[in-house]
Structures are given as C-alpha cells and as structure tokens.
Design goal:
Number of strands of chain C: 6
Radius of gyration of chain C: 26 Å
Order of helices and strands of chain B: HEHHHHHHHHHHHHHHEHHHHHHEH
Distance between the termini of chain B: 64 Å
Chains: A mainly beta, B mainly alpha, C alpha+beta
Strand order of the largest sheet of chain C: 1-6
Strand order of the largest sheet of chain B: 2-3
Shape of chain B: globular
Helix content of chain C: 25-40%
Number of domains of chain C: 2
Number of helices of chain C: 4
Number of domains of chain B: 3
Structural class of chain C: alpha+beta
Largest sheet of chain C: 2 strands, antiparallel
Structural class of chain B: mainly alpha
Largest sheet of chain B: 2 strands, antiparallel
Oligomer: heterotrimer
Chain lengths: 320, 455, 191
C-alpha cells in the first residue's frame, strides 16, 4: 500500500466521522425527530358523525379556581363546589352567594325543593334551602370515598366508591341500610369499582339508578335496595361506554333520558332509558387529551351544564 | 429552593386552618365568607395547594378489590442497581493499574508488562464495566457540579477525574498508556503507523482544546454530555449501540491502523489536561535506562511521534531573534484572548441551539402557528404541559445568557491556547539526546525495548 | 557553572508549576468534596412527567431498552376490560393475540376470580414502548407505567433517552431509592 492510497483512505474515514456527527446532531433536532411508532391511537373512535351531535356549546363560564369538585342546578342557579367554597352563580356567571366549607367537599346535589346535600370524603351535610344546617350524617370509616349523593322525599342515597356500596340514610343523617349491588343471585361480586368513579342519581319519577362502572352498566334499584333492572352498553364506539370506570358521571334530563360523561376518551352523550344512544352532546374533539370526565347537571329545558375540571370552566350545551 | 419555602409556609397555614376548623366544628359549619378579604383568599390558596396534593394521594390509595379466593397481590419487583461498594472497587482497580504501570515503566522497564496490564484495563474498564464511568467523561460531571447547585458528583466519579491527573503530575501519562480502555483499544490495532507532517499534527492537536471547551460549556449549561454522546468506542465495549455510533467506532479503529491512537491525540479532551500536567511531572518515562549513546535505534519506535530529537546546533545562532519573537508573541497573547473571546461570543446563539429548550423556543417564536398545529411530539408535549410560550422563552433567555458568558470564556480560553502555542514555536530548548516528549508521551513503553543500553 | 545554575532555575520553575497544578487539583477536589454526593445518582423515569412518547423503546443504548413497563399492582383495578391489555378495537375480552394491545404480547392476563383479572409484565418481552401505559392511563387507573430497570441499565454517564425525552421525565435519583413506583409516592415526590 502506498502512502497516497492510505491518505485517501484516511480522508474518507474522516469524512465518514464528520457525516456521522452531523447526522447525529441534526437527527436530534426537534423537527427531525420521528413520530411515535408505538402510538396508542383511538382517533377512529374520536370521530363522531356530525348528524349525531344535537347540541351546541352556547356558553363558557371561566372559573377562577384551583380545584373544582362538583356541580348542581336548581331553579336558574348553578351550585358549584370550588376549592373550599360553595358558590352559587347564575347562568351568566354572576356570583349570587358564596359560602365557605370546613372540609374538602366531593359532590353536591340540590333537591326539587332546594335542599342541599354536600358530601365529603366519608360523611355529608344536609342543608335547607335557606342554608341552615339540617343534619350532619354519621361518619363512615376511612376507606370510604363518597363520590355521589341523591335524595328522595325522605331518604338519602350515597355512593361509596371506596367500599363499593350504596349507603342509605334517613333525613337526620342516620344510616338505614346498604346496597351491595348483586346483579345476579349466584354472583358474589357487587359493584365493580376500579377507581373513584361511582355515580348515582334519582330521576323525576323517583327511580334510583346506579352506575356499575366495571360493567358499563346502569342498574335500577328499588328504594329498599332490590335490583329492578339494568342496561349496559360496552363499546369504544359512540353508542357505548369505553375503558374502565365508565360512565364516570351521569345525570337525568327532565324527560328521564340519561346524560353520560366518560373518562379516557372524553365524550358527553344522551341515552334513552332503554340504553339506546339518542344524541351526542359533546364529542371527544371538544376536550383536550388526558383530562377528567366532566361532571354534569341539566336544567328544566334539557340544556346541559358541564363542569370541566381541567379547563376550569362551566360549559353550557344547548339543543340545536 | 423557592418552591420548598412556599410549601413550608403552606403547611403552617394548613395547621392553623385545621385548628380553626376544630374549634368551629359543629357550631356553624357554613359561614359567610367575605370575598373581598384578601388574606382569607391567601390562606385559601395555600390550603388548596395542599388539598390538591392530598386529593391526589387519596386517589392513589384507592382500595383494591377484596378477593375471596385468597389471591395475594404480588409486589412490583425492583431489582437493585450495581452496589455503590463496587464503584469503590473500580477506583481501587484504577489505582492499582496505575501503580503497576509505574512499576513497569520505572522499575522493570517492561513493555510486555505494560501491554498485558493495558489489555486487562481494556477487559475490565472497557468490556466488563462497559466504558462508564470513565475519566474522560467525568470532566462533564465536574463541570456540571460546579454550575448546577442541584447536582453534585459522587466520590468514585471525583476519583476517576482526579486520580489520573494526580498520577500524571508525579509520573507522566501512565493512565493513557495502561489504564484508559479507549486508548488501549486503539493501541492494539496499530499496524502501520505513518508519520504525519508536523504542521498537520500541530493543527489537529488544537481540536482537543476546542472539544474540551465546548464539552465543558455544554455540560455546565446542562445542555448535553457530548463527550459521552460521541464516545466512539462505547458501542464496541457494549456490543450494542445505535448503528451510527458503531460506524463511528469502526471508523476510528480503521484510522487507527495507520494513525496511531487518533482519538487520544486529536480528539480526547481529557488529553489536554493530562498533556499540560505531564509537562511538569516529577518523574517521567525515559527511553534509556542510563545514558543515551545516540544510537538512533529508538527514533522509529514511537508510533505517536512523541520522541524529541537532539536539537540542531545551527539553530542556536538564531537564538537572539528567537527570543525577540518569543517576547513579541507573548505580548500578543492577551490580544488573541480578546479577539477569540469576542469572536466566539458572537457565535453564542448558534452554540445555544444545541440546548433543546432554546431550540424549541426559537422554533416557536419563528413559527408560532406550530404551537397549535404541529403534531410533532416535542411541540405536542410542550402544548399539553400547560406552559406558556412566554415562560418557555424566558427559560430559553436565561440559558442563552449563560451561553453568552460561557462562550466569552470559551473564546478567551481558545485565544490563550493559540497564543501560547504560537509563542512556543519560538521557544528554544537545547537537547543533546533522544528524549520522550513529556507532553505527548503516553508512557506505552515501546521505545524502552529499542534501547540497547543495559539497565 | 552557569549550566548548573540554569538548571536549578529551571528546576525551580518546574517545582513551582508542579506545586500550582497540585494546588489546582486539590482545589477542584476540595470544591467537589464540599458538595459531595454521599450516595450516587442513577437514572429513573418520573411516571407523572412521562407522556408515553415511545422514545424509551428506541433511544436506549441497549437493545432492547432497559426501560420496561412495571405494574403497580396496588393501583390496579383488576378489570376484565383492561385499557392497557386490550386493543381499543378489540372484539372480545380474551387473550387472543388479535385483541392484545402490546406489540410484543408482553402482558400476561390471568383469571383470578369473577370478575377480576391479574396483569403481569413479562419483562423479557417488554420493549418499553409505553403503548399499554397510555391505554391504562387514559382508560384505566394508570397502574402500568415505565421504569428503568437497574439490573439491565448500564448507568450511562448521561442517559441517551433523557437527551430526547420531550417531557424531561428521566431524572437522576439517589441510588438509595432507585425506583419511582406509582402508589409509593405522589406527584410532588412525597410518600
């Protein structure tokens, strides 16, 4: 090998080294980085036929809050649990009244008569419409996590996600019974609650409905705790409920339809009492990725008031 | 630090609030709050800060299902990292290798001993320890620990940085010849070293200074550890790396067939430090065990061109003008420093582009529409992080300012290096014998075998 | 005579230089010792910062990556319908390959009792792509998450994944507590 050949060879190698360095440096430049080849993709399920969407977002009320806990509607007013406050605002967002609470509230319900139920981690407070305290319930144990509360004429039902049961109370806050949630007689398990999402509500006809989120199921119970019936819809597609723990929240329209909200792939929909999809209120495209399922309530006209925990605002959806 | 303080305050506020709660519990749970009272909202803010934390941990500890079949929940396994004690053993081995090397170089004068010792180092520090941590890379850890208060080096890392330098101060670059796995792997592939022209050697020899300067700049600003990133042999040691790093390693080894130890001589940033420390070493390898007999047998023995020949008597005649030039160039050194400092500081924003925060900020300032439109992963991550563009730009500004200061220092350093190198062109030292160049000699011991003088 | 004098002068200068280098080294060492890290850092993924970008699978110096999915069983809902195990479009809730989300089928599903299933990661198969982490996080409890496995990790001086991580989720942690398993600590790092 002569010297010249070696020099050319060396020159080539130096060139290779320089090219490698430049390529390596430029490949880590942000715009040259690859997309995620292992992306978890649910795009096809996030697309919703526009004809199914019967609602239009008509208003957003921005909230100046650190954390939001729950929302309820009564007579033109929104009852909002925000930080350590109960705020009462009108539909334009004007503050009507504000109260400070002594504990971290978790969920709220307002009855037809305007009585207020505020649940905390393992107890609840019962207020009259003039905000005087009627009763404070017995405290449950530490494993309890109250996630929802509802009332009929003379009993109060609380969903306890931590212990996977519904607890019944009388109006004085005394515990009167429990619902374990047996769906079939030979089945030992009751409510399947993988995480702290467990909602219940009572419709205008006084029927108690409870979500069994592990089964994507709505179950109707008699007021003494017997299972009367159920419906379930399990699907990533728009007509069902996806993932685990869904629907995360629900409420009733005045006509008895179910308004449901899901986590994971955030979407708000209306289902008929038999379970069929009636319309879509808000498709996943309305929400950023990775946020919590909104809590909801509905007004007398069937408009839906949703509480967006992450964007920190109230979003009102009107029928088109 | 600021954050921590705030948290402490919030804890205090929380406990105060708690006491109030206890005293007022039961009496009037719903109290009218006056919204315009500022201090109250202040307390609430801190209170909420805490709530957000506690509510999170509550969600974390959601009770698991009760199993009837006696199923026992397994624990998530957590295999331990390599024990810290083993790192100290590494330090001990490094020290022992250098001690043995000193013995081979100064006492037994055995090239064979050094060769076997160096193969052991390659096997242990290279293939067994897989190249991390090495003394070359430790420069960056030291630099980062000096500038980032949140980072501090561990004792083994410090030892890997300091010990080879200390040994060099006493005995020359024993580390390069016997302990450094990167050096040894190149040493073993030298088959036909060619002589590189002096001018090329000198100019290529500048690169390690630049590399060292940039590596320290990037490490100090927390941008990158480029020495580790472009370590050409780590892929070979691990037998697993990205393809282009393997290519890099093979390219260096192929060059190493003809240019002995190319990485050590023309790239290695640690060699800059060793080179300068070695110039003042207390003892150093000598080619001959007693008196040089000018036999010239050793002249071709060094593949690294690190043997200085006896000086030409004729040059002595010019020594007067030499001294004048030397003085002139010595006076020029500060000029170089300022010129280079200025020049490099002009390039600070270019240098700062290697920092991903700076780069992202610049990209988004230039194309703000990307923030909402781009499906690029990094931009998407920024979007969902909730950070505003202003915050990002502010962060980038701070880093860029560090780069401005850093690049001035880098420029001044490079100016000094070039000034001193130019100045040294005119330094004249009389030499009567064939001697190892203390700065460049890697103490590999090859020349010792060629010397016919008996011990 | 003058020769020896010159030599002593040079020796003196050398002595001085040697001493100053010695002092400089001692200075660096001293400065580092003041703020010495008694333990040592190792790399770990903060699961609360991780955005499941998938780069852990491809950018580790090891092939396959030293990043694996781990299961924080304490957080798992033991669901039949597991967002981390089943593909979103899965027709059935079975172990059939076409229903599995994991590209390497590294998650094993075991029936415990009605209606609960246990999910275990086979780390030999896991490539650390975080696909299941995303599925579990968005549709489930987030019990699946990525961690650097220290029996595999080469403990690079600078983690090659950290360099490309878009959310700075790869952090240096003390060798004392080398893992950040979800459930053992919360978002702000407290237990």
């Amino acid at each position: 090998m002569n010297k010249r050949l070696i020099s050319i060879f060396l020159g080539l190698l130096v060139l290779i080294i320089v090219v490698v360095l430049v390529l390596d440096f430029s490949s880590t430049k942000i715009e040259n980085r690859n997309a995620n080849p292992y992306e978890f993709n649910v795009d096809e399920f996030e697309k919703v036929d526009a004809e199914l969407i019967h609602y239009r977002e008509s208003k957003q009320i921005k909230l100046d809050a650190e954390t939001l806990h729950g929302i309820a509607y009564h007579h033109g007013l929104i009852y909002l649990l925000q930080d350590s406050l109960l705020k009462i605002i009108d539909l334009d967002g004007h503050l009507i009244n504000s109260f400070e609470l002594n504990d971290e509230a978790r969920t709220i319900t307002v009855s037809k008569e305007g009585k207020i139920l505020i649940a905390f981690k393992n107890y609840f407070d019962f207020y009259a419409d003039d905000f005087t305290l009627l009763a404070e319930s017995e405290h449950e144990n530490d494993t309890s996590i109250f996630t929802s509360i509802a009332l009929t004429a003379n009993s109060i039902f609380v969903a306890d996600a931590g212990n996977r049961r519904v607890i019944m109370y009388d109006e004085s806050g005394k515990k009167t019974g429990e619902i374990g949630g047996e769906t079939e007689k030979d089945s030992k398990h009751g409510f399947i609650i993988p995480s702290a999402y467990f909602d219940l509500a009572i419709n205008n006809s006084g029927e108690l409905w409870v979500v069994n989120p592990g089964k994507h199921q709505f179950q109707q119970y008699s007021l003494d705790g017997r299972l009367l019936g159920y419906w379930e819809k399990s699907s990533m597609k728009i007509d069902g409920f996806s993932g685990c723990c869904n629907p995360a929240h629900f409420c009733f329209l005045p006509n008895g339809d179910f308004v449901t909200s899901e986590k994971g792939m955030i979407r708000i929909k209306v289902h008929s009492p038999s379970g069929d999809l009636k319309s879509v209120v808000a498709p996943p495209s309305k929400f950023p990725e990775g946020i919590h399922a909104p809590d909801m309530c509905a007004d007398e006209d069937g408009n839906i008031i949703a509480l967006d925990f992450d964007l920190k605002m109230i979003r009102i959806f009107n029928l088109k | 630090m600021e954050m921590r303080k705030e948290k402490e305050i919030s804890n205090i506020q929380y406990s105060v609030l708690n006491d109030e709660e206890k005293s007022s519990a039961g009496s009037n749970p719903l109290t009218h709050s006056m919204l315009n009272v500022h201090y109250l909202s202040f307390i609430i803010f801190f209170f909420l800060f805490l709530i957000s934390i506690t509510s999170f941990s509550q969600q974390q500890r959601f009770p698991k299902p009760e199993f009837d079949t006696g199923y026992e929940q397994p624990n998530t396994t957590t295999p331990e990292p390599r024990a810290l004690a083993l790192e100290f053993i590494d330090v001990f081995i490094l020290m022992s290798v250098m001690a043995l090397a000193a013995w081979f170089v100064f006492k037994s004068r055995s090239r064979r001993g050094i060769l076997f010792l160096s193969i052991f180092s390659l096997a242990y520090f290279g293939f067994y320890r897989e190249g991390c941590i090495c003394s070359i890379g430790s420069i960056q850890n030291i630099a980062l620990s000096f500038f980032d208060p949140a980072y501090s080096v561990s004792l083994p890392t410090l030892a890997f940085f300091i010990l080879p330098l200390l040994v060099t101060l006493f005995f020359g670059r024993l580390f390069c010849g016997s302990a450094c796995p990167l050096g040894v792997i190149q040493d073993l592939v030298i088959i036909k070293p060619i002589e590189i022209p002096r001018w090329l050697q000198k100019s290529l020899g500048l690169f390690p200074y630049i590399y060292l300067g940039i590596a320290v700049l990037y490490a100090a600003t927390g941008t990158d550890f480029i020495i580790c990133r472009f370590d050409p042999f780590v892929g070979i040691f691990r037998m697993s790396a990205e393809f282009h790093i393997i290519v890099l390693g093979i390219a260096f080894l192929l060059i190493g067939l003809f240019v002995a130890r190319p990485y050590c001589r023309f790239v290695c940033p640690y060699s800059v430090l060793l080179n300068w420390v070695s110039r003042f070493s207390w003892k150093h390898l000598s080619i001959t065990p007693s008196k040089c007999i000018q036999c010239k047998l050793c002249t071709n023995s060094c593949p690294f061109d690190a043997i200085d020949f006896p000086t030409d008597e004729k040059l002595k005649l010019n020594s007067k003008s030499n001294q004048r030039d030397f003085a002139l160039y010595a006076l020029l050194v500060p000029v170089w420093m300022i010129v280079f400092g200025f020049a490099v500081s002009r390039a600070h924003s270019f240098l700062a582009q290697a920092n991903s925060t700076v780069y992202l900020a610049e990209l988004l300032i230039e194309q703000p529409e990307l923030i909402s439109e781009s499906d690029n992963l990094d931009i998407e991550t920024f979007r969902s992080s909730g950070k505003t563009l202003d915050q990002l730009v502010e962060e980038a500004r701070v880093i860029q300012h560090e780069f401005y200061t850093g690049s001035w220092i880098l420029g001044i350093f490079l100016g000094l290096v070039i000034g001193v190198l130019l100045m040294n062109q005119f330094r004249f030292r009389k030499r009567k014998d064939y001697e190892a160049n203390k700065a460049d000699c890697l103490s590999c011991g090859r020349c010792m075998d060629y010397c016919p003088v008996p011990k | 005579m003058s020769e020896t004098k010159k030599h002593t002068r040079r020796d003196f200068v050398r002595m001085g230089a040697r001493a100053s280098i010695g002092f400089a080294l001692a200075g660096v060492a001293g400065f580092s010792l003041v703020d010495l890290n008694k333990e040592k850092y190792v790399w770990q993924i903060d699961p609360f910062k991780c955005t499941q970008c998938g780069r852990c699978a491809d950018h580790c110096v090891l092939k396959p990556s030293a990043v694996k999915c781990v299961h924080a069983f304490a957080l798992c809902g033991y669901c039949d319908l597991c967002g981390g195990y089943l593909k979103p479009e899965a027709k059935e809730r079975t172990t059939a390959a076409e229903n599995q989300l994991c590209p390497t089928a590294a998650i094993q599903r075991k029936y415990i009792e009605d209606p609960y299933f246990e999910y275990v990661i086979d780390e030999a198969l896991c490539i650390g792509c975080a696909k299941c982490v995303k599925g579990c996080g968005s549709f489930g409890n987030g019990s699946l998450h990525l961690q650097i496995r220290h029996d595999l990790c080469d403990d690079c001086n600078e983690c090659a994944i950290a360099r490309v991580c878009p959310s700075d989720a790869i952090v240096r942690v003390s060798i004392d507590e080398p893992y950040m398993i979800k459930g053992n600590f919360s978002k702000d790092g407290n237990a």
